[in-house]
Amino acid sequence: DTGVSQNPRHKITKRGQNVTFRCDPISEHNRLYWYRQTLGQGPEFLTYFQNEAQLEKSRLLSDRFSAERPKGSFSTLEIQRTEQGDSAMYLCASNPFSYNEQFFGPGTRLTVL
Amino acid sequence: DQQVKQNSPSLSVQEGRISILNCDYTNSMFDYFLWYKKYPAEGPTFLISISSIKDKNEDGRFTVFLNKSAKHLSLHIVPSQPGDSAVYFCAASEETSGSRLTFGEGTQLTVNP
Fold it and tell me: Which residues contact B102 (CB under 8 A, 6 or more apart)?
């Protein structure tokens, strides 16, 4: 399978705990994006990387959220001190530079109890 | 502020008929528009796109129309098939924003046999 993969697919955690999600983009895609989707809404942009550089962060990305893409390959999204409002589907997407279409992974569903 | 809006949360059509999904936007800097389809428990799948220099793009049963003066686009599916039943998201991007996508809320399409 050569699509975008995300792990884990589901995560249940207690309020206050830290969680980390991983995204493996399509090989050789140098742009990688993170989005968050809540029930009844479309995906909302969080941040994106071009290779290893984080080029843009949304104001939705509070200081409890941090994303990395070491070596420009896979990426991780960490949420510290989770809150119930963080419960959502976290989607990762990738594309080659100058390509408008983005290719999405299956997402990680986070439930904060 | 919601820069991309899909005012119809749901649409139901008969198999073989035309499905028309609508989308409005407010940001005049958007210059590329995309439609994604999403099945439950999966990430969004790219369907069709259109650049702001065109007013129509066709791919098989799917046609997207863009009316820049009205800031409106629509997706036509002809003929509709039961397998088309899914949530459809309209998305837009500005070249200057690094290709982040701004999504609408989605329209649930149900095609009845």
Answer: A45, B3, B4, B27, B30, B91, B92, B93
